[in-house]
Amino acid sequence: MTRSPRRPAPPPPPPRRGLLRRLLGLVPALLLLGLVGWAALFFTMAPSLPDTRELFQESRQAKVTVLAANGQVIAVRGSDGQRFVQLDEISPWLVKAVIATEDSRFYHHFGIDPIGLARALVKNLLAGDVVAGGSTITQQLAKNLYLTPERSLKRKLQELTLAIWLETRLGKDDILTLYLNRVYLGAGAYGVEAAAQRYFGKPAKNLTLAESAMIAGLLRAPSALAPTNDLDRARDRASIVLVRMQDEGFITAEQATAARMKPAKLAPEAGEMAGYFVDWVLDGLTRHLGKPEHDLFVYTTLDPKLQAAAESALGKVLARAGERNAVAQGAVVLLDRTGAVRAMVGGRSHLESPFNRAVNAHRQPGSAFKPFVYLTALEAGWQPGNTIDDRPFRLGDWQPANFDGKYRGRITLTEAFAHSVNTTAVRLAQTVGPAVVVKKARQLGVVSELQAVPSIALGTSEVTLLELTGAYLPFATGGLRRPLYGVTTVEEDSGRALYRHVPTEARVISPAVADAMQAMMAAVIETGTGRAARLGDRVAAGKTGTTQNGRDAWFVGFSGDYVAGVWLGNDDNTPMKGVLGSNLPAQIWREVMLATPKPSRPEPQPVPVAKREESGFDWLMNLIDGVVGRATN
């Protein structure tokens, strides 16, 4: 028997290609497809691309002259118009600081940096937030030169296209020169030469390492980080820039330490009359109009006489009470009935501390927030003569307490408001609803974040002095809200107007309720906590405010055609000693208000304290008190 021959084993199947290998195999095709698409996009957009020959023709920066309401020049920014400087006329420290901070691979990419983009993407993914950007200096220049701030896919594609186009037309040093001459660096300064003169009173070529790091640090947030706005934040940011410079090998550890130990200081000429006001105006102007192409004249609402009175009133109190009362800082805002800012003081010294506490410091207003609670109650049907209980009660784990520890039993709303009783304010807020109180405060002009919680009645949500003072304006105008403004007109040197203020108003309080609120706020000064703010024969109304442990003290009020707000406190939030809204802030407010002109029209006489009126609300409050008492005892 013969055995059949054994068949040879089939060859093993070829190994299956993994997913990663297949994807890698597609890379060349994808790159080719992307290159073809990019070329098509580039040549589609190329006909509309601008000519670079005009970019170097600008020889100077525009001069901005700021004038007070009476025509007096209060500031000139840009000196005689800062000229366009070449790269060799800029401190090498500043050039290195900008490259280290904004685009460390600037000299090694073609306008777009894939490595930088990938690095930024990884950092943002790890942080779970946007902590790093991938835009190159060339992209930033393209955006600043030709594009709007719009955030869209089309605008991003335009930016990328323009960046590559700039790299094909200009050398790296030319791109860097244009960027350093055109970038905005806060306080109305465009370009490094203008910034060097504005902050340090010297040309850009003479900047030190510390000064260069500070200017480079402004590129992230020019207005917020400007040393004339917040010197401490500018110095903190400069320290980060020094670390980046050291990491990139531009400076040694010893140089970085030396620059941190001796941080940049503002030049004396960086301070000026109404410096806080000028900074506020010019930052707003830049946001709305962008970089000026011609010399500008900015006509403002500032009243030099009232500005001097506000500075003097705050300065005298801080000098007298500073060490004794442990109070280092304060702020004053003065408005007229139209919403025009007539005076603004953001601290005791703009030169020593340019941080504008009137505009940028968010602090708890304490009882100065209570007018919004009482206004909401009046609009819900309460009357100033209605009675309400002032006695201890609890809301969960919280028991509101009066400042003086005393309780008065049944009192009218006017009495409770005049004496700043805490328990009644919380009861009212709970009755009408904290969310309704927040909504009303927003209608009057408070824009900061407010928490709709029971303690909102005692002013625990932080606000700024400017917005709080502005929100009191409808109380003075019979219920009309008018937007605050500091600029009336902006004109080019040719006389062409770029901006004119257009007055607007909206009714946010009915006339009857506004009259009732005026009467209650007048009672604060006549018989309540604001007696130190009395103006003699002039009618006045307002509200005191003091926060827990004396960290903040406020007085905000109005008389005649003016509304003023005063805040005292410490930047580090440490408590003051014996400073209440009823003493030093009220005294400052009184001195500022006495400097204002007496009203030309007859003033309404103060309404007497409302008589006690029993109503259905008294029955309602007794019912609520009984329920709360049973639930908490």
TrEMBL record:
InterPro entries registered for this protein in UniProt: Beta-lactam/transpept-like, Glyco_trans_51, Glycosyltr_51/Transpeptidase, Lysozyme-like_dom_sf, PBP_transglycosylase, PCN-bd_Tpept
Protease recorded as keyword: yes
Keyword set, alphabetical order: Carboxypeptidase, Glycosyltransferase, Hydrolase, Multifunctional enzyme, Protease, Transferase
Reaction it catalyzes: [GlcNAc-(1->4)-Mur2Ac(oyl-L-Ala-gamma-D-Glu-L-Lys-D-Ala-D-Ala)](n)-di-trans,octa-cis-undecaprenyl diphosphate + beta-D-GlcNAc-(1->4)-Mur2Ac(oyl-L-Ala-gamma-D-Glu-L-Lys-D-Ala-D-Ala)-di-trans,octa-cis-undecaprenyl diphosphate = [GlcNAc-(1->4)-Mur2Ac(oyl-L-Ala-gamma-D-Glu-L-Lys-D-Ala-D-Ala)](n+1)-di-trans,octa-cis-undecaprenyl diphosphate + di-trans,octa-cis-undecaprenyl diphosphate + H(+)
UniProt domain Penicillin-binding protein transpeptidase: residue ranges: 330-559
Keyword Electron transport listed: no
EC numbers: 2.4.99.28
Signal peptide: none
Pathway listed: Cell wall biogenesis; peptidoglycan biosynthesis
Domain of life: Bacteria
Glycosyl transferase family domain residues: 74-246
Family per record: In the N-terminal section; belongs to the glycosyltransferase 51 family. In the C-terminal section; belongs to the transpeptidase family.
PANTHER family for this protein: BINDING PROTEIN TRANSPEPTIDASE, PUTATIVE-RELATED (PTHR32282), PEPTIDOGLYCAN GLYCOSYLTRANSFERASE (PTHR32282:SF33)
Protein name: peptidoglycan glycosyltransferase
Source species of the chain: Benzoatithermus flavus
